[in-house]
Amino acid sequence: MKVNQGKLKAVTRQIAADLMKPGPLELPVTVGLKELVRMFGVKDNTPYQWRSKGQLPKEDGELSNNPQWKLATIYAWAEDTNRTIVWDPWDVLEPDEAAA
After folding, report:
1. N or C, where is the chain less crowded by C-beta within 10 Å?
2. Residue 61 pairs with which residues in a beta bridge?
3. 38 contacts 51 by C-beta, under 8 angstroms
4. Which residues touch 85 (CB under 8 Å, ≥6 apart)?
């Protein structure tokens, strides 16, 4: 799957707009290990193993002592490692041309 850059830019603009209004964000800006389970449809401990083996990219930050990645970082990592995302929070992925 490839990230649709046009959709990604639109989502980025939406997040910027959401940051300017009161209340919670509508779209996740970052994901942690638990969200990776859902995104990749893997067992609960798999993202923890990826991290301990150094397979995940360096985290972009921490929240309550838990690693967090920008969603764009995870999209790029999935694309670089040919991992399939089964839950696309921003709906920016397009099917591979070979699979179509």
Report:
1. C
2. 68
3. no
4. 1, 39, 40, 75, 78, 93
**pTM > 0.85:** no
Specify the long-range contacts of residues 5-9, CB closer than 8 Å, at least 24 apart.
7/90, 7/91, 7/92, 8/72, 8/75, 8/90, 8/92
For 92: left if phi > 0, alpha if psi spans -120 to 50, otherwise beta; the answer is: alpha
- Determine how β-strand 30-31 pairs with β-strand 93-94: unpaired
**Tokens 């850059």 belong to residue:** 5
Reported as a single tens digit per residue, the pLDDT across 19-75 is 777 876 665 678 999 999 999 999 999 999 999 999 999 999 998 999 999 988 999
Query: Exposed/middle/buried for 71, CB within 10 Å: 0-12, 13-18, 19+?
Result: buried
Q: Give the pairing type, strands 61-63 and 66-70.
A: antiparallel
